[in-house]
Amino acid sequence: MIDLSGKAAIAGVFESPRRDAPRVHPFALQMECILGALDDAGLTLKDVDGLCAASGDWAEGGSTMDVVELAEYIGIAPTYVNSTDVGGCSYILQAGQAAAAIATGLAEVVVISYAACPRWWPLSSPSFDPFVFPAGPGQYEIPYAPTLISTYGLFARRHMDLYGTTPEQLAQVAVTFREHAAKNPDARLRKPITVDDVLASPMIASPLHRLDCCVVTDGGGAVVMTSRERARDLKKPPVHLVGYGAAVARTQNSQIPDDLTTPAALSGPRAFAMAGLTPGEIDVAQIYDAFTITPMLALEDLGFCARGESGAFVADGNLTLGGSLPTNTDGGGLSSNHPGKRGIFTLIESVRQLRGEGPGVQVPDARIALAHGLGGTFCSAATAILAR
């Protein structure tokens, strides 16, 4: 693997404060985020020669030509484009590929952008749904009528059966991230909750209650990447990409490994090896949390705790501000925002933490951050390690 450590840096970030954007086209929201991230970096659209976007479904108002349409919309003609879409972690994967493009001279300033408006975008629009598509391996699971939430419920139930994980431990994930969201003025949900509140909320897909599930919001974000040398002369202190890894596995539930290993078990070690770091050296983490079980599996696969011990790891307070691994300091997808694909926000909050600009909870003197995302039902994963 090409060593990308320190070859590129994130120079600007921006997260839209909107959680409801009625009648706003996702492209308009992306424009807002791109301009905001460029301003944060002290750059303009004229400086951009690389564009990454992956928004090809109904909630994002896009298509398979989304990156082309977006370039036209914002008025640039980039020399490097990337529309790789592997689900929610696409933007972390794109950050690694953008670093490679910068290191090899394919581009100098790359913008990674995402926005979606699922709260209002016409729900009747045609979309590709891998859970009901009547072809390929999926045809063998259609009779069981899987849905996205029920599939995550299966993961949670399997973890309980294998390792003794409890509903209370799952609920603690939501409680911890809500504590962080309470101090984030832009978070969708800020009212503190208890474990009992989570368990008393309606059951959605056993064992997942409503408060075990992410919020549904509009929103968007953007990240500006450039070379290490150019980043030194820009408006904000650079945050360097020092480690990166990505992996894909399976799409069908029937192919899930017995011990619930996810592609993070591959993407994480690759990122740590490139960075020359270990999990114990991470100061703050932003881990995709579509459901409470999501970050728990990632904690195990990334090496922060042993297989089956994430429940106890969370219950012991390790994800809180005073814990060994403060995680999802903006409130995450469970409380802050989740427009559909949340990987880009893990990058944004990682940068804010390393700059000391956390919108709410701030980890003191954080120097190394981990951003991790997944795609589909643990079908893909991407991990980035950032350092100031």
Automatic annotation (TrEMBL):
CDD domains with a match to the protein in the record: SCP-x_thiolase
Top-level taxon: Bacteria
Boundaries of every Thiolase C-terminal domain copy: 245-388
Pfam families: Thiolase_C_1
UniProt cross-references to InterPro entries, sorted A to Z: Thiolase-like, Thiolase_C_2
Protein name: Acetyl-CoA acetyltransferase
